[in-house]
Amino acid sequence: MKRSAALPIMLICLGCVWLLKSTALLPNTTTLLALLLFAAGVLLLALDGFNKSTLVSSPLLAYAGGAIYAIDQLGLRTSHFVALGMVLAGVLMLIARSDRVPERREPPRRFPRQPD
Fold it and tell me: Where are its TM segments located (predicted)?
């Protein structure tokens, strides 16, 4: 019986992160968080497609990543980004109410096989 590959993969990932951090090649935590949020927004839109849900969540994730980066690296005020984010969220929610924006597709349900 084969054992799970989770532990070796976790060790490889942790070792790579540790090596990058000790050689100062890994960006600081705030920059990494900003990049991950931005990438999550882009990836969500790419994987789930354009629909009412991703019209709001994807740009907001990307905006949050950009705002965190700008606050940390450029020293801009947090309150400005929070206020602008609220306006952006409201505008996106209003646009998502349009009939032209498709509903979210539900993945096909897979029912367990019934015994014969």
Answer: 29-47, 54-71, 77-96
What does the pLDDT profile of the chain (116 residues) look like in tens digits? 567 788 888 898 888 888 888 888 877 888 888 998 999 999 999 988 889 889 999 999 999 999 999 999 998 899 999 999 999 999 999 999 998 888 877 765 666 666 66
Tokens 């602008």 correspond to: 84
End-to-end CA gap in the chain:
29
| Residue 11, phi-psi category: left (phi > 0), alpha (psi -120 to 50), beta (remainder) | alpha
b/e code 18-46 from CB counts within 10 Å (16+ = b): eeeeeeeeeeeeeeebbeebbebbeebbe
